[in-house]
Amino acid sequence: MNKQILVVSVLQIFADLLRSNQYLLILAGFLSSLIFVFALVISGVLCKSMGWKVNWFFIIFCFIVGNTIAITIDGIAMTTCTLFSFVELFLLYNLSKKVY
């Protein structure tokens, strides 16, 4: 939870700086996609401790959270957050297939 708060704080504090350059907008999208991953891992741990499985509802909710934070920076940040989130979701899926 602390990592999410730290990433959101950095994004909001440096929002004007992140909007100043295209490469920094891509960085903002990547950082927002990390929020998606952190939220997904947290919800996965909570679901597993309660005996549930992580279904599409949790994935979509975490995706919306990450993109909502990205859209506060810029639309390009949201687009790159979406792309990075799909890649990270694919990597998490393959990792979970190997572990479990």
From TrEMBL:
<dbReference type="GO" id="GO:0016020">
    <property type="term" value="C:membrane"/>
</dbReference>
<comment type="similarity">
    <text>Belongs to the KRTCAP2 family.</text>
</comment>
<protein>
    <submittedName>
        <fullName>Keratinocyte-associated protein</fullName>
    </submittedName>
</protein>
<feature type="transmembrane region" description="Helical">
    <location>
        <begin position="25"/>
        <end position="47"/>
    </location>
</feature>
<keyword id="KW-0472">Membrane</keyword>
<keyword id="KW-1133">Transmembrane helix</keyword>
<feature type="transmembrane region" description="Helical">
    <location>
        <begin position="54"/>
        <end position="70"/>
    </location>
</feature>
<feature type="transmembrane region" description="Helical">
    <location>
        <begin position="76"/>
        <end position="95"/>
    </location>
</feature>
<dbReference type="InterPro" id="IPR018614">
    <property type="entry name" value="KRTCAP2"/>
</dbReference>
<dbReference type="Pfam" id="PF09775">
    <property type="entry name" value="Keratin_assoc"/>
</dbReference>
<keyword id="KW-0812">Transmembrane</keyword>
